[in-house]
Amino acid sequence: MQSIENLKRVSHVTRMTLFAVVGIFLTIAIYGFVSQGQWWVTFGDNQFDALWLQYKESHILLAAVFSPLMGCWLLGFYFLQRLLLALSSGLFYAKATLRYLKYVSWITVFYVCYSMAMTPLATYLVVPDSSIDISLNPMTLIIVLCLPVLVHLFSAAAELDKENKEIV
User: Fold this and answer.
1) DSSP secondary-structure letter at 90?
2) DSSP secondary structure, 112-138, as one string
3) Is residue 53 classed exposed, middle or buried when 0-12, 13-18 and 19+ CB atoms within 10 A define those classes?
4) Digit-coded pLDDT (tens) for 98-154
5) Count of domains in the chain?
6) Which partner from 34, 67, 102, 121 sits 20 to 30 angstroms from 51, CA to CA?
7) b/e for 146-163, b at 16 or more Cβ within 10 A?
8) Distance of CA 48 to CAs 34, 135, 144, Å?
9) Which class for 126: exposed (0-12), middle (13-18), buried (19 or more C-beta within 10 A)?
10) What was the pLDDT predicted at 1?
11) Does the global pTM surpass 0.85?
C-alpha cells in the first residue's frame, strides 16, 4: 500500500512541476517579447528562426506551417496533465488512463515527425529556389516510434491483469 501512495505522490509532484515549468517558459517568452520585441525562447530550429527573421512578409505562412506544433504542445500538455491527474488519483489501470497515455504517445510521434519536416516545408514554401537542409535523428525516431508499442504492451498487460483477477 505504501508504494501506491508513493506513486500517487510522485504523479502529483510531477504534475505540479510540469505546470511550473510551462509557466516559467511562457513567462520568459512573453517577457522577452514585451521588453525587447523578440522571443527569448526558440520555437523552431535555427533555420526556421532565420526564415522568420529574414522573411517578415511570410510570417502568416510560417505561422500556418508552425501551427501544428503549437497544437501538439497544447494537446500534449492537456493530455499529459489528465494522465498525471488520473495517476495521482490512483487510477493506474483505468481505461481513461490508458487512453490518455495513448494520446500522449501518438501526439509525441506526430510532433517529432512533423518537426523534422516543418523546416524543409517552410523553406520550400517561402524560398522555393533555396537549398533545403533535412535533419533526421534516427535514434529519436526509433525511441519515439517505440512509444505507441510500449503503450500497447502496457494496455495488453492491464487487460491480462484484469482477466487474471476475474479468474481468481
Assistant:
1) T
2) HHHHHHHHHHHHHHH-TTS-------H
3) exposed
4) 899 999 999 999 999 998 888 889 999 998 888 777 777 788 888 888 888 888 888
5) 1
6) 34
7) ebeeebeebbeebeeeee
8) 21, 12, 22
9) middle
10) 56
11) no
